[in-house]
Design a protein that fits this description.
Elements (H helix, E strand, L loop, with lengths): L2 E5 L2 E3 L5 E8 L8 E6 L6 E6 L6 E3 L7 E6 L4 E6 L8 E7 L9 E5 L2
Parallel strand pairs: 2-10
Antiparallel strand pairs: 1-3, 3-8, 4-5, 4-9, 5-6, 7-8, 9-10
Length: 114
């Protein structure tokens, strides 16, 4: 079955950077687009970034455009989210998801605070 394991979260000061990783298994990773979502306390889960199966096209939420970069390594079944210039409003649990599957990982907590 589909398994997604996110890692790389933590506590960072405003303006700092983090790189999230997601290890995927249980499906043909290179055939599926991948997405990063986030959910802040008391808010609905929102789409942050999307990358096509071969990595040739990406899309971002307006709130992270220019600061976050999604990438993937199909040889390693990994998807990444590089987050720069972090703001307190980026605080959330971050999840990766394979487009077309309903499974979610456990998420990784990102806290941006001084």
């Amino acid at each position: 079955q589909v398994q997604l394991v996110e890692s790389g979260g933590g506590l960072v000061q405003p303006g700092g950077s983090l790189r999230l990783s997601c290890a995927a298994s249980g499906f043909t990773f290179s055939s599926y687009a991948m997405r990063w979502y986030r959910q802040a306390p008391g808010k609905e889960r929102e789409l942050v970034a999307h990358i096509t199966s071969a990595g040739g096209s990406t899309n971002y939420a307006d709130s992270v455009k220019g600061r976050f970069t999604i990438s993937r390594d199909n040889a390693k079944n990994m998807v990444y989210l590089q987050m720069n210039s972090l703001k307190p409003e980026d605080t959330a649990v971050y999840y990766c998801k394979a487009w077309g599957f309903s499974s979610w990982g456990q998420g990784t907590q990102v806290t941006v605070s001084s």
